[in-house]
Amino acid sequence: xxxxxxxxxxxxxxxxxxxxxxxxxxxxxxxxxxxxxxxxxxxxxxxxxxxxxxxxxxxxxxxxxxxxxxxxxxxxxxxxxxxxxxxxxxxxxxxxxxxxxxxxxxxxxxxxxxxxxxxxxxxxxxxxxxxxxxxxxxxxxxxxxxxxxxxxxxxxxxxxxxxxxxxxxxxxxxxxxxxxxxxxxxxxxxxxxxxxxxxxxxxxxxxxxxxxxxxxxxxxxxxxxxxxxxxxxxxxxxxxxxxxxxxxxxxxxxxxxxxxxxxxxxxxxxxxxxxxxxxxxxxxxxxxxxxxxxxxxxxxxxxxxxxxxxxxxxxxxxxxxxxxxxxxxxxxxxxxxxxxxxxxxxxxxxxxxxxxxxxxxxxxxxxxxxxxxxxxxxxxxxxxxxxxxxxx
Length: 392
Hints:
alpha+beta; disordered N terminus; Coagulation Factor XIII, Chain A, domain 1; about 400 residues
C-alpha cells in the first residue's frame, strides 16, 4: 500500500492540504433543526449579536469552528462516565464550555408535538451503533445546568452503515415552553470505533413562560456559575479593571469551578468546590484557587484560567486569553506572555510563548485546535498565528 501511494506521487504538502480541506478530525453535527452550535456559529463566531452567543463566546466557544467535533473518544456507550452533569452540551470539552451556560434565551426552533425530522450532517461517515434522542422533562428549569436526570429517551435509531447524511423521524412528546433535545451519535465500536458525538438542540413548543434568572450566578451551587464568568468577562474586558464585575470573596460562601472572585485586589478562580479557604493562602494548580493576577494592570505571567482570563487592556476585548484545565504559564526569556497550552482555547489577539518565540492568535478557532496549528511547531501554524518576536 505504501509503495502504491509513493508511486502516485502524492507529496506531504498535498496530503496536508487534503486533510485540512476535509477536516480529518471532523465527524458530524445536527443541521436541522439547527443545533446550539450551528445557531451561534451562524450568528457570528468572532462578533456574535445574540445575547446567549455573546455570553458563550466570553465563557469559551472556540469549538464553534468545528461543531462536528463535539466528541469524546472511547466512550463505548458509557456517556455518563465521561461527561458530568452540567457539561452535556460541551461534552466536557473546555473549548466549548460556553455552550453549557444555563440560559432561557438560546436561539430556538419552534416545534410542535409529533413527528419531526432531525438531520445529522456527517462530515466524516462512520458505522453507527445508534443515534439517540432525548428531551428535557416537562418543568425543566433552564436556570439550572443540564443534567442526565433531566432527560428522557424519545428515539433510538439502532445500527446503521456509513452515511453522509442521517435523517431520523423523531416523535416529539407533548411539551410546553422551551426545551433541549439532546442527541448522541455512538459509533459502532465492533465495526468502527467507540467514539461518541453530542449535540444540543434548543426547541420551543410555545405556551410557556420565560424566566429572567437564566444568566445570573448562584454561589450556592454550580448551577449557573459559568454564566457569571461569562458576564464578568464581557464587562471587565472594556475597562482597565479586570475585576470590575466580580463579587468579593466571602468566607461563608461556597464556590466551585469556574466561579471567580476578587480578593485583596487580585482575581481568583475556584479550581473545585471550596468554602472558607482564603484565596491568598490557598492558590495554586492543585489548591482550592487559581491566582489570575492583579485586578488592574496586566495579569501576572502565572495567570491561566480554566475558563477565561480577561486581559486588562481596554483597547481590545479580543484578548480573552486562555481556557485550559492545566496551569501552564511560565515566562520564557524576554517574553512574559503565558506558555502555549495545546488544546486550550485562545481568542484573537491572545499572545503565547512557544519554542522560544512569542506568537499572537489571528484565527481563534484554529488556535484552539492545536496539533497542526500549534504555534511554531504545527505544519499549519501560520494559518492561525503570527510570529511576534523571538524571546531569546
